[in-house]
Amino acid sequence: MSRQNYIFTSESVSEGHPDKVCDRISDAVLDAFLAEEPEARVACETFATTNRVVIGGEVGLSDQDKLHDYMGRIDQIARACIKDIGYEQDKFHHETVEVTNLLHEQSAHIAQGVDAADNKDEGAGDQGIMFGYATTETPALMPAPIQYSHAILRRLAEVRKNGTEPALGPDAKSQLSVVYQNGKPVGVSSVVLSTQHLDEALTSDDIRAIVEPYIRETLPDGWLSADTEWHVNPTGKFVIGGPDGDAGLTGRKIIVDTYGGAAPHGGGAFSGKDPTKVDRSAAYAARYLAKNVVAAGMAERCTIQLSYAIGVSKPLSIYAETYGTGQVSDAEIEKAVGEVMDLTPRGIRQQLQMNKPIYQRTAAYGHFGRAPDADGGFSWERTDLVDALKSAV
Length: 393
Description:
Strands 1-8-9-10 form a 4-stranded mixed beta sheet. Strands 6-3-2-11 form a 4-stranded mixed beta sheet. The protein has a 3-stranded antiparallel beta sheet with strand order 7-12-13. The two termini are 26 Å apart. Helix 1 crosses helix 3 and helix 5 crosses helix 6. The chain is built from 11 helices and 13 strands. By secondary structure, the protein is α+β, with helices and mostly antiparallel strands. A hairpin with a 2-residue loop joins strand 4 (88-89) and strand 5.
């Protein structure tokens, strides 16, 4: 029997965190190519440090002239991301940072296994295992610790950018330790918040006075108490932030991007990868299926695992786990999810409308637990498979 009373902790990082700056640039490059050609191939990695951004990886368009034209736009794309995030520091400024573009054409050996041919469907862009998860503990069917850690930083970013709190800088981290009783989240035992600030004279107490009201308005009523421990900028000053304070890399915050450690992770990062890469698209599909299983009332918690081989279109396996909360058997769920959705790479992309420039918005504050957008963004958060799943069991 699983434990019912415990404390679980998850962290989030802001859009100005060095790794998230890199995720943002990589996904902005991806969006630019998808806007030109829905079937564009992109595997873009970014590295950022003091006064420098390096972008590398593989890209592909059917029109080689357009490919070379888009290569010339990479510098502009990177600077626009850095400007929107808010970096205007002496040693990391959107106008003066040196941007090096090392992108090149996609490997023909990778393409031959992925591209559809006359005698076979399009294959997966890589081998691997992908997990999706959902739980009833929040309205978004996400684990509470990661969902509210994200929400705190999104709120602080809002007031920073709209000028309400001009003392705050772009780089920040949050961490919540959530108390569970009878398997349900009921409170927060500790809050950790470290945020960059632009005024060197501000103390940790000053920063707490700024951020505490926003944290309180973000968390559910009654979750904070006199017993909650607060650690706001516990090391003191935090003026030098972003890639000037610590180097960043694409794909280094995979637990922040998913479920905060509350569910398994296959190990593959998302940002900078076009949706032929099942590291991304199949992880989104697994979340979509798990969320619909929970929304259908089939379980209070659900993990879905999918596995793929490079160049092979259909998943090698489908696995479901409901942790004893299932109203139907896990085996029935496995069968049902395979029936209600085409889980080939192309089937996933078509059902979730993934060949669109919708990825830059995913680069911070989580790829899951977000509201679906009218243009297809976060389509994997829809619950439109509920009726089909109920009919399939």
